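Bit of a strange request maybe. I'm writing a small parser for structure token strings and I need a real example to test against, not something I typed by hand. Could someone generate the tokens for this chain?
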Amino acid sequence: MRRQLLKRTREAHKQGFSRGELLPSDLREALLDESARKWEVGLEEIVYTGSQESLSVNLSGVWYRFPKDEPQPVTGLQAKKLLKQTCFRRYSTYERLKNAFKRGQSVPVYIRRDSGLGDVLMLIPALRKMKETFPNIDIVLSTAEGFFPLLEDLPCISKLHDKEKFSTLEWDSFYSITNLNMAVERMTPHNRLMHRIDQFGMLLGVEVSDHSIEIPLRPEWEVDAEDFLRREGWNDEPLVVIQLKGAVESRTPTLEWWKPIVEILTGRGDKVVFVGHESEGWDGPGIIRADGIGLNLGVVAALLKRSLLIGPDSGMAHLSCSVGGRVIALMSTVPAQLRYSYCSNILAIQPLVKCYPCYSGGCAKKECFRAITANHLLEAIEYMESEGDIGCLIAQDTVPWRTLKIEAFPPQTPIS
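Reply from user aminoacidic:
Good idea to test on real output. This should exercise your parser:
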């Protein structure tokens, strides 16, 4: 059943992007039935008792209140356990929340998204919409401590909390607790056709209208980025930042794939800067190593603003877009429209291999990356250099391809 649904959704997805049509109604109903079946299967796993709070559970992108006629209580301690297991939302009683809004009281809410820089950045428009809709809520965002510099100056976030420090929070002080870990990843195939920003909005109960993401750069970050480059021998050559590794290994080109591209770039006089959490690059003429040295992400953001970034679909690509940098995104399994259609100054390269789209997180074969050659990438770089501000473009075609077919992003498939 599930395999058939995935196959039909993939076919409808391809048609939807070319014709802009909705999914067939019978397929939408079948997907909803699949969600309901999952809910029944998982029902016994989510049974908690406690004091005064009610429990809602998100399963495959759909919210359920259990039981429907009598809210299931949950304590702060049990909430803490749930945060490590599944996506869920705990609400205070409606009357308590309504009275707090009436009195203009501060209403603290806890939202958790552990990892994935790109996902944390794409969560920002939904948080901003929540704050605009309910000005007196105080959003406490729990995430990786390394992301803090990028988020500290955003007005929609009242406080940042290190995801590793559970014991420092008073759980019962929050009016709602929302855990978004693996929430979008576990959505039904139907809801996967939404942009990631809209997925987060749906999970947080808001309709996002402003999808822009802008990370303010501090002056000291730009100074530190300049100092770092000068120390490494940069003399105002064109900068190309390369992220060698994606979020997961199966969505990452091999080092052998990257080497001829780096040779072409350094051979024409560019400075190539490797970035990444791990030390994955190599030394050589024209290469600056910023990978695995623990640079503050704010400094990395300042570096990206003045560079062209080339890399797989990842947090670095979203960060570059959010600070006004230029990006060539190498897409694999997920349609570029569902990640970058609200960005600017980006060219997404997406070979339409036989298995596209697969939504599986990648595979060992990496046929999508093998379809992109060094000449394709050089063509994309030269296009961006000649056009200036390119807006949002995609090179998407069936393989094998000789030259890139560059065009505007097709519209997203509407979801009802």
